[in-house]
Amino acid sequence: MKPNQLIYCVTTVALLFCSPYTTRADQQKNESNSYKPRIINTTDLGADPDDEQSLVRQLVASNEFDIEGLIVATGCWKKTQDNTAMLDVILDAYEEAYPNLSVHAAEFPTPEYLKSIAVMGQDGYGMSDVGTGKDSPGSELIIAAADKDDPRPLWVMGWGGMNNIAQAIWKVRETRSPAELKKFLSKLRLYDVLGQDDAGAWIAKNFPDVFYIRATGVYGWQPSKEHFAENIQSHGPLGSVYPDTKWATEGDTPAFMHVYPNGLNDPEQIDQGGWGGRFSFTKKAGIRSMSEVPKIQEDGETQYDPYLMYGNTDEKAEAIKKWNKGYNNDFAARMDWSISSKYEDANHHPTAILNGDKSRKVLRMSASSGEKITLSAEGSSDPDGDALTYNWSYYDEPSSYNGTVEIHTSTSSQATVQIPKDAAGKTIHVILEVYDDGEPNLYVYRRMIIEVTGSATAEILEPLAGSPYTPFPESVVVTKVRHFDNMCWKIAAAGGTWYFENGETDGKTGFSSAFDQAGNDWIGNDADRGYNKSSNIGGKHEYRGWPNFGEGNFNHPQRKSNSNSWWVDKNGKQIAFEDSLSGDHLIMRSSNPSYELEYHFFPSHATIKIIRADDKYAFLFEGPVGGEQETSVDKDYYVLKDGIHREIKSGGLGYLEPEFGNKFPSPFFYLADSDPKDKQVFYAGVRDVGPITAGDEGWRQGENMVIFSFGRDEDKRAYTGTEAICVFGFAEKTEHKEISSFIESKIKSPFK
């Protein structure tokens, strides 16, 4: 910390003393407890000492959380527990440090309170310790916390196994009505570190609507051992119980760092990114537990396949590491607090004010494309009178806009953001980072999400992004454009306009968009970027395209699969592509080391022929029903060969029809929007040549996402050989008999 001074600067650093503005302590008081996340830890203390490390970090920041439970748990590395002795030792150290901590910030929980919520959980491993007569103080504590009359969600964090929460859910299901169970589950936010027993898969399988994150990107963000020795372990009673690293350092810390209320992110919006990393709102199948779990029971987790969870985005630990100065210095400063009985002997956090807002909330504002807007941190202050430095930055990964955003005077207390002209309908995340010049520098943050008004038009989007041709050509016309920031073949015909990533961008191939004549994108990969008509601004789902064909993401759009594509004549000889191609029958090939496909495009439909398949495969469609990412999808429907209109409901996850399970009884499906203005349906069908184990699946996921596949055995691809032929395209929305006849004729004669 620096002595108080009175200096006014017009450069990038501002000094404030005796500030009339809100201090961080006042900020806490004014916000009451509304900003604090409610959390319960379940920890397998006695396995890897990283749990002890994470607990020390959490305790010196415990004024920022409402900790409602500390539960000693089991896991794959500690399959039994019989006491809370290790937890008691750490809480005793906290009791020694508590008087000093309370000098530096209000609302640290008392040692007596923390000891009152430190309890034993399940004493046995995984699902073997869930069921009748298996209640524990930990599972009962979870139920009691969720039952509180508190509007805030309850974050239950599994630093070990998840069977304490599994037992709590099991008991509520057995003793309460379905409506009461639904209410109970709605309060829960589950954060599972790496998966350390089979209970997580049981929860995700049996309660697919529950909010469940499994974090696998929890290593690689930590500082050096020397940093911990100098700044943590040398600091008093809590430093003395911070053990040396044995296997990994603080692997459980990202769980509570995700909900750390530092102004950087809203933990409910898991794709925003913060100290705890960034997660995708697309639930994924097969996020497996640690390798020790199947050694305990080979099918302990796979028996629940398919189960789906939220997982890390591609950045994994890099999404944590980008904030390393902030979280490293925060921990170091708080350890200083734990040994400093005088306020002036340590540094304290600034307060960041964004456009006059003094809270820690993520803010939103609207702007027009091409507009310049001003963001202000005026009024930000430091309780120690330290100089403040400002940094404004564009956070591209969570933004739906996929381009460059210019920020002028980005190191001043006021910044000007130039909204790009092609950003209509998209979001731009701007991060304000404020830090002081105390020792160590302490960082606080704010986030402004700019929602760019207007609709993306063909004039704006072409050729950088997707739009249908108007009018649609009677033959097939191919051009090359950039779409969703990837080079694509744009294939237009009477039925629709297709965008196929052609391999030029990082070896990515696959259909990322399929526009019908009304301009709706029925594949809509990354549809939340604003290209679809939707009242759900920003969106929450990544639509994964078509045909999402082979192992290793072959022909899965926006996934690197070492693939390329080219155009051939009817004899398979490569033809040169210059500015465009046109004709009534155009043929494209796509390959990588394991697969080669041939795509035949006709004015009325398209056909996929398999040239080579050295591994198993399936034809997988994932996209929005009706070509729109709508908030409500009631009355949108899908149809199988039997002609029944089956409605698709928003939210949830699971088979579209439970009685079909993994094998819906139809060689084709088609999807229809109930809007009478939409005149076309999307269809796909396959000659059934796969093994008996290959199923034809239908799934629902999220707001308006469906998954249909041909050739899957649960969550695994199952087709082999080269005999399978797939047809797909758009058809006129008319009577089922006519649509069915049209699709079956294409399956029978796919190359006509």
TrEMBL record:
Molecular functions (GO terms): hydrolase activity, hydrolyzing N-glycosyl compounds
Domain Cellulose-binding Sde182 nucleoside hydrolase-like, first and last residues per copy: 38-279
Cellulose-binding Sde182 C-terminal domain residues: 372-452
Protein name (Swiss-Prot/TrEMBL): Uncharacterized protein DUF1593
